[in-house]
């Protein structure tokens, strides 16, 4: 059985920059863990992830979500003085 997730991130003016920051990572994923297809559509970054098991799908999705968070935080922190708010307990 194959597992699949489609994720879409509409990040306004940062979408193109985030898309470019993810391109190399999306190309590196091998078929052993899963396949990631990256797209830009309507100003939003799209991820289509396919994996052979649920744990692999979750791992790939988590990795890309963290990369997106890091990219947006860097962009917004560098250019606008603020990133995404960290709501995790410290």
Layout of SSEs?
Elements: E1 3-10, H1 15-28, E2 34-41, E3 44-51, H2 54-79
Antiparallel strand pairs: 1-3, 2-3
What distinguishing features does this structure have?
single chain, 90 residues, alpha+beta, TATA-Binding Protein, three-stranded antiparallel β-sheet, 2 helices
Q: What can you tell me about this protein's structure?
A:
44% of the residues lie in helices and 27% in strands. It is α+β, with helices and mostly antiparallel strands and 90 residues long. The protein has one domain (3-78): TATA-Binding Protein, CATH 3.30.310.50. α1 packs antiparallel against α2 (54-79). It is elongated, with a radius of gyration of 14 Å. The termini are far apart. The model has no long low-confidence stretch (mean pLDDT 86).
* CATH architectural arrangement: 2-Layer Sandwich
Residue runs with pLDDT of under 50 for 5 or more positions = none
Give the overall silhouette. Answer: elongated
The residue fraction in helices comes out at: 40-55%
CATH-level-4 superfamily name: Alpha-D-phosphohexomutase, C-terminal domain
Order of helices and strands: EHEEH
> What is the multimeric organization of the chains shown?
single chain
What does the main sheet amount to? 3 strands, antiparallel
Measured between the Cα atoms of the first and last residue, the distance is 39 Å
Can you count the beta strands? 3
In summary, what is this structure?
InterPro entries: CTAG/Pcc1. This protein has two helices and three strands; from the N terminus they run βαββα.
């Amino acid at each position: 059985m194959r597992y699949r997730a489609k994720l879409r991130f509409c990040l306004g003016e940062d979408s193109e920059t985030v898309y470019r920051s993810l391109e190399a990572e999306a190309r590196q994923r091998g078929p052993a863990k899963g396949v990631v297809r990256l797209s830009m559509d309507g100003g939003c970054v799209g991820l289509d992830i396919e994996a052979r098991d649920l744990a692999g799908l979750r791992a790939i999705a988590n990795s890309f979500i963290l990369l997106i968070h890091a990219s947006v935080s860097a962009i917004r922190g560098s250019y606008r003085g603020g990133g995404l708010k960290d709501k995790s307990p410290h």
